[in-house]
Amino acid sequence: MKLYYSPGACSLAAHIVLIEAGCPFEIERVDIPKKVTETGADYWEINPKGYVPALKLDNGDVLTEVAVILQYIADQNQAANLAPRFGNIERYHLLEWLNFIATEVQKQIGALFNPKMTPEMKVVQLGVIERRMNALDKMLAGKQYLMGDDFSLADAYLFNILLWAKKHNIDIAKWPNVSAVNARVAARASVIEAMTAEGLNQ
Q: What domains can you pick out in the chain, each with its CATH number?
């Protein structure tokens, strides 16, 4: 398998989960503005959506969308215990987390990257983010990880997106439960390995 990534983008979650799963893979960096990979390939031909991640399977098929890629990796490597099996109610709780992270954390924090956002719009957006983080902090009370005592692919995804908070001077220490889970994930060997490979630990 080959993961197409850009340092710090939400492809980092897939990178972490691939390491956690213990499956063989390679990575190829994508210049997102130019839509060219590090080997000179036209990224539009790989992923018509133009963004990362994209996971090219050994049979040549390509998967996109981080939540889908994460579940594919987990389901192909069930021994790694990164996701409950389908049919189990816990799988649907995992899907709740993935949807919440995608629509209420990634989307809201990601909006701050818009260079056309006015100071007034930013104040409103930060208010939305604070409300989402307040809810997240309550949901994580008493938990080691998002799903309880065990690390799951949702933890990798949330960790990835919370890296963006730092770029916008959002101090997650304000939310102690979020901060504790995030620190726990940051200390995992897979996270350190992926971050180092992407040049994010410098």
A: 2-80+190-197 (3.40.30.10), 89-188 (1.20.1050.10)
